[in-house]
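MODEL INPUT / OUTPUT PAIR
PAIR INDEX: 1
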Amino acid sequence: MKLSQFKFNLPEELIAKYPAAHRDESRLLVVHKKSDQLEHKTFKEVLDYFNKGDFFIFNNTKVFPARLFGNKEKTGAKIEVFLLRELNPEQHLWDVLVNPARKIRIGNKLYFGENEELVAEVIDNTTSRGRTLRFLYDGPYDEFKNQLFSIGETPIPEYLERSAEPEDVERYQNIFAQHEGAVVAPAAGLHFSRELMKRMEIRDIDFGFLTLHNGLGAYRMIDVEDLTKHKMESEQMIITEELCEKVNRAKDAEKNICAVGTSVLRAIETTVSTDGHLKPRNGWTNKFIFPPYDFTLTNSLITNFHLPYSTLLMMACAFGGYEKVMNVYEEAIKEKYTFGAYGDAMLIVD
């Protein structure tokens, strides 16, 4: 498939700039794969399509305050630093993006915080925008981490075209987020409220968690027309033996297995065996899923409405079928569903 096949005209006003008033009250478009039936629901009705013993898989990664604003030494030029991942905790080394990149050289010092209390030194230039920073801090590690995160902002997506606000600290995070390491929230999980999770338990719908630390790679624009030539950036993931046992037991009992989000789908498809069973893993994935693709474990997917040309849209099309999903997107635009991390959701079922 070609990149140009994932173009569609998305009106700017349909990109949700803020979250819904309540997590589980976004709209939900239900897509039946084996028919052309579409149903317009609210998200809290999602459990109506599942039964006792069905299994939901969530991503419990936790977003950290990755966006910092500082000043360059001597010139005082304003610099935005986006923390990507910690490289060495003992030396306070971080892989980061810097903007504007042209103003930063190896050896430059950057100052952060109201009183410029946190200082970092640029020690490596790895890409046109990427850098390695060493934070100059002599105190205990926990103290450093607390100070670093206290001056950071919630890294809401750039397409929202606004600064992070206090509400984003809570809402750009899943309620079950546990393991710190993501700079992008797994958006499908944002729709799940505590009340909805409790209703799952009451209905004996089972669920479990894997961890995939969402980076920026899946959200960067693809610059090749031939999708087979696109290389995804690696993301760290953990799938435990306990989760595998539960999922495989549900699979063998012919229960529905629902992936909550494209990050879950990527993690599953990285380790699934040829007989459709999940295998444990503690490592990295750079798997790129686009149509056509055969899924052997999951038979339902919850995902938000994604932006044109995105790898997330490609994964949704791989799961639901290219023509069907692109037609659904036309319907969603016509019915004014909202797009992006804070937007509405789609459930694809058999």
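PAIR INDEX: 2
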Amino acid sequence: MSYITLNTQKLAQNYNHLNNIFEKHQIEWAVVAKLLCGNETFLKSLLSVIDKDVCDSRLSNLKKIKELSPETKTVYIKPPAKRLAKSIVKYADVSFNSELDTIKALSEEAFRQHKTHRIVIMIEMGELREGIMADSLLEFYAEVIKLPNIEITGIGTNLKCLNGILPDREKLTQLVRYRRIAEQTFKKKIPYISAGSSVTIPLLDSGNVPEGINHFRVGETLFFGTDVFNDTYLKGMHRDVFKLTAEVIEIHEKPMIPTGKVGKNLTGESPEYNQEDRGKTSVRAIVDLGVLDIDVKQVTPLTEGIEVLGASSDMMILNITDEEKDIKVGDELDFGVSYLAVLRAMNSDYVDKKVVSTEKLKKISEKATA
């Protein structure tokens, strides 16, 4: 069976690296854990090395986090479905909101549960995902502030995820202005502006995050060391917290071009081939995972000289011509994985999940929370 591993030691080192960055700039941050898809093994590993609020966009995942660590504060980071108000109040300490009727439902439910539910009002800043229009902020705020058992803990925005709109100093400065206007109008402090995410981190050292932006939500950079803004990597961070491993189930020398009439394959494509390869052969290996488990374009063989040729539903085909003497049936091959590849693998019941560096878990946890 193929499996994906999470390296706890490297995760802790990435966490410490980011923590140092945010402490330097006096910014609070929360960990976005939705990539882990509520997997208990990986969540335990994450919770052992962090001391932060945990964000997720799936209610079942927040429920699992509360079961594993009741003291951990949880944040639901998309506008809740109105029908889920009871569970949102039960499992999320904070939720991001942009609909008045939903907040009213949360207020009623928080009253029933004898709780105060905290919310972040999301504002549209050009990405055209969730958020109220900025010119309606005061009217919206005026309605929300009347509701019992609801506390407005911040305003926020989302960028980059849908249309690729990048954060900049102008947009972030405008958010700071919105908070100032709301505070002056309603004579009530708004503690946080949650406008930072992985894509905003590189703006810190360039001085393009204005004072007042004091909360970040970070997932991808924590797990992959990515500089999302510049499409590269941050120095001093591990890129290989995750690794995918698959077993070789067949090795044969075969023609490089298939024979017969070509139609569409499983993914609806009609493959094209270099006719100069006709009559040539290559050594091909098959490993035990496919498009049900991963996106073939998002995995990279870690053994030099191996090439991914394609995949069907549950098998991936590799060209191992340059490495054939060192590979045999039953061997395991390792692959580097992107964010989307891990997300697909985490959602597959056919890919096992394993934690490495568990013998160092206690020491890492102590260091990360010192």
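PAIR 2 NOTE: Residues 177 and 212 are 9 Å apart (CA to CA).
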